[in-house]
């Protein structure tokens, strides 16, 4: 009971940033003098039976935490885990100072923000602020997605909203040529899979997000895919064939409505 009340007190003392269909996102502090954390609270769903809702919430919080932990152990740039209270639907992760890729690239239509796990951002920040070019950014994206897939983690909602570029002032880069890093966020729909099909679908989802959100994005996605190919190595041949098949299925679905 103490854990639950502590989690609720933490939420009530934090600042609401955004709300999606599944979760509310807050900025808070685990201790008065500690660093900021992003709190993802999966609130109760009154349209579900209470026992089912509790079971699903626990499973999804625990599953997201496991995916993040496996990514961290595999060297994927994701937020660190700060606290987990699966019973109350609360996950606390590292607060990423930076900006989402969606707002660093020319934007067209809205791609949707999933569960809304994007911190408040400065509208004045540009790629120049982060010391990188579009080509470098695409390279960083391709590398991180490849590392994630090599760890057999499927993101499930790859969009440019779910990628953050760290502010160079918030950490020390190990590479002076690239003073920032790309961080994958919002693993609420992630799962473990070794299937080539699932990894190809993950890439296709991102390709469609690029096309719907960023005008003339074909060269950008191609650059990302080139970096992905280099990182995954010998696995790319099977992935490329399956991605082509997924694209064909997607086009057929579009034609028939």
Number of helices: 7
Oligomer: single chain
The radius of gyration computed from the alpha-carbon positions, rounded to a whole number of angstroms, is 19 Å
Structural class: alpha+beta
Order of helices and strands: HEEEHEEEHHEEEEHHH
Largest sheet: 5 strands, antiparallel
Query: What distance lies between the first and last C-alpha atoms, to the nearest angstrom?
Result: 50 Å
List unreliable stretches of 5+ residues: 109-114
Any idea how many domains?
1
Task: Kindly report the name of the CATH homologous superfamily.
Answer: Transferase(Phosphotransferase) domain 1
CATH fold naming: Transferase(Phosphotransferase), domain 1
Family: Belongs to the protein kinase superfamily. BUD32 family.
Enzyme class: transferase
Subcellular location: Chromosome, Telomere; Nucleus
EC number: 2.7.11.1
Write the layout of secondary structure elements.
Elements: H1 2-12, E1 15-19, E2 24-29, E3 36-41, H2 50-73, E4 81-85, E5 90-94, E6 98-100, H3 127-130, H4 134-150, E7 153-154, E8 163-166, E9 182-184, E10 191-192, H5 196-213, H6 218-232, H7 236-256
Antiparallel strand pairs: 1-2, 2-3, 3-5, 4-5, 6-8, 7-10, 8-9
What does this molecule look like?
Strand 2 (24-29) and strand 3 form a beta hairpin. Strands 1-2-3-5-4 form a five-stranded antiparallel beta sheet, sandwiched between helices. A three-stranded antiparallel beta sheet has the order 6-8-9. Strands 7-10 form a two-stranded antiparallel sheet. It contains seven helices and ten strands. The longest helix is centred in the N-terminal third of the chain and has 24 residues, at 50-73. With 257 residues, the protein is of the alpha+beta class. The chain is globular and about 50 Å long. It has helices spanning 2-12, 50-73, 127-130, 134-150, 196-213, 218-232, 236-256; strands spanning 15-19, 24-29, 36-41, 81-85, 90-94, 98-100, 153-154, 163-166, 182-184, 191-192. Mean pLDDT is 90; it is low at 109-114. The chain has one domain: Orthogonal Bundle (Transferase(Phosphotransferase), domain 1).
